[in-house]
Specification:
Length: 391
């Protein structure tokens, strides 16, 4: 099958699916309506699927000939972001938005399953299209793995639309391409009171503010500039009004690294700074540290296969993917098989598709999606048929 030609012929379908899922975003672990819609779309195409949970769906496309099993991952969760675009298909769920492109991933996965289901005579093996929940740091890949339904997979491909790359660019590299990510919550306890009498209180706002600044020195002063490290405090909540000293403050953030040695150094320094800053202010504290995902390491053989297919789809518009400090739990599937994590550019100034992921004005150029569909489908078929030939 000429997958690019077929994907372009299905562009209207892919765009319709993308816009439909964009309108109805759901947060991690709660993607119930989303998966009902996915299953309706699969039923409409007579594509069988497994449904081990109300927010996990695995489409199964069996080739006419026996062989190995290849997986394709499409994540499905949205974010707690209030959309600020004026798109005609903007979010209809207040306070929620597909601000990372997972709506596009769903559309890509559905179209890919649709094309592969027409090509079963050419497939030597089985394709499982995994519609995964809770990628945004909520252990969605782990939930899929715990079902046992992907234990038979021999290789997995995943694609992420990417706002830094020009629309339609195809990027992949044989190395670590997404950082390990831990999420933390620090709760600081002090003694609240009147804003006019700070000497009678233990001010958690001052303590939390100093701690936010101190944590930034982990990357700037306690690790080498050649070692990628990010420590971000994304939220700080404390106090109720201007003349009350807050007795409690809560900070939430993430730690991101690539190297296990650096990971240990960063966490040691993190623990020391939290302890010392809180002690200096006379505050008690608790830390909840939650490892969200490890580093996503691409398999060299799968990358070579993906690069060859990328050149067939978009000659001259392919290249190496740069490592990113963004985390993705796609790497967790390495517990069962080698993985290949790829990116497709969606940046298009004419459409204002220039905003970063997680921005309330983030948007996707739908014209880039057929290339993503073709790339995944070609990779799946190539892997299965080359494996059947013993290559």
């Amino acid at each position: 099958m000429d997958y690019l030609k077929e994907a372009l012929a299905e562009e209207a379908y892919t765009t319709e699916m993308y816009q439909r899922f964009h309108r109805f975003p759901e947060p991690s672990r709660h993607e119930v309506k989303t998966h009902r819609m996915i299953r309706e779309a699969l039923n409409a195409e007579n594509i069988p699927f497994l449904a081990p949970a109300e927010n996990i769906t695995i489409a199964v496309v069996r080739g006419a000939k026996p062989g190995r099993v290849v997986g394709i991952r499409a994540d499905t969760d949205a974010l707690q972001v209030t959309e600020e675009t004026e798109l005609p298909y903007k979010s209809e769920n207040p306070g929620l938005m597909h601000a990372c492109g997972h709506d596009a991933h769903i559309a890509i996965g559905l179209t890919c399953a649709k094309l592969l289901s027409r090509a079963t005579a050419e497939l030597c093996g089985t394709v499982k299209v995994i519609f995964q929940p809770a990628e945004e740091g909520e252990f969605g890949a782990q939930a899929v793995l715990e079902t046992g339904l992907v234990n038979d997979v021999n290789a997995l491909f995943g694609v992420h639309v990417w706002s830094s790359y020009r629309s339609g660019e195809l990027r992949v590299s044989e190395r670590g391409v997404a950082a390990s990510t831990d999420m933390f919550t620090i709760t600081i306890h002090g003694l609240g009171g009147h804003g006019a009498m700070p000497e009678l209180c233990v001010d958690t706002v001052v303590c939390a503010s100093e701690l936010v600044c101190a944590l930034q020195t982990i990357a700037s002063r306690f690790t080498s500039p050649f070692d990628p490290v990010v420590v971000t405090v994304g939220s700080l909540h404390a106090g109720t009004r201007c003349n009350i000293i807050a007795g409690e403050a809560v900070l939430e953030g993430t730690i991101r690294t690539f190297d296990p040695r650096v990971y240990a150094q960063v966490h040691e320094r993190f623990d020391r700074l939290v302890r010392d800053v809180c002690d200096a202010h006379g505050c008690a504290y608790e830390v909840d540290m939650r490892p969200a995902c490890g580093v996503t390491w691409n398999d060299e053989k799968l990358v070579r296969l993906a690069r060859a297919n990328a050149e067939k789809i978009a000659p001259g518009e392919t290249g190496d993917d740069k490592p990113s400090m963004l985390g993705d739990d796609f790497g967790e599937y390495r517990a069962v098989a080698p993985v290949c994590y790829m990116k497709v550019g969606i940046r298009n100034e004419a459409l204002q598709a220039t905003y970063a992921h997680h921005n309330p004005r983030f948007r996707v150029d739908p014209a880039a999606l057929p290339r993503a569909v073709a790339w995944l489908a070609m990779n799946a078929e190539s892997y299965l048929n080359e494996s059947a030939r013993g290559e």
